[in-house]
Amino acid sequence: MLTFVALASVLLLGIVPEQTEAISIYTGWERHALLGSDVRLSCSFFSWRGTSDDVTFSWTYRPDGSRDSISIFHYTSGQAYVDNKGPFRDRVEFVGNPGKRDGSILIKNLDYNDNGTFTCDAKNPPDIVGRPSSVRLLVFETVPIQAGVITGAIIGVVLGLLVLIVVIYYLMRFLVARRVFSLSVSKHGKKKREGTPARQIKV
């Protein structure tokens, strides 16, 4: 009975509950950075709705080898709140643009202790259901050659060897065919000379 009354009230008053939809959150997968440098950690989201005035972004950090995460940044109601007591005190800067669904942050003066996983969560009310996205930060004294570059070099070498093998193969076939042709012409000419009777010289 109460359910019927509620539905009737909705129809009569024209009140329709606003439906929520899931949003998709994106960050990079892994970032490499130099010791003492700054690194931008990007975070954006996709939603079928326009960007809400109540959009929020939250960043947490989990050090390598730890199971616990700490909050390092939160954006809500047009204000950015940075953790001023943790390991990133005075080193986190908001460089995103909420109006463009960008919740990126900048980590300054990187240290080896900053290695870990950074997770971004975003809400675009009424769409508040979305799976947070994580990016792993690796700090090096010198940035290593990425696996993609090594893989590309290996593929290039292999392709080069294959091309060289094909060229050698066709060159050998050409040389063999040329040799066979020369021998055939030489043998044919010799038989022709042997089959021709010698002319007698008249005195």
The Cα radius of gyration reads: 37 Å
CATH superfamily of the largest domain: Immunoglobulins
Count of helix runs: 2
CATH class term of the largest domain: Mainly Beta
* Overall mean pLDDT: 82
* Number of separate structural domains: 2
**Strand line-up across the major sheet:** 2-12-10-5-6-7
Helix content: 25-40%
Q: Which segments are poorly predicted (pLDDT under 50) over 5 or more consecutive residues?
A: 1-17
Measured between the Cα atoms of the first and last residue, the distance is 144 Å
Name the structural class. alpha+beta
Identify the CATH architecture of the largest domain.
Sandwich
**Strand residue content:** 25-35%
- Report the order of strands and helices: HEEEEEEEEEEEEH
Provide the CATH topology of the largest domain: Immunoglobulin-like
Q: What does the overall shape look like?
A: elongated
Number of strands: 12
Q: Major β-sheet, in short?
A: 6 strands, mixed
Main location: membrane
Organism: Gymnodraco acuticeps
GO biological process, one term: myelination
Family: Belongs to the myelin P0 protein family.
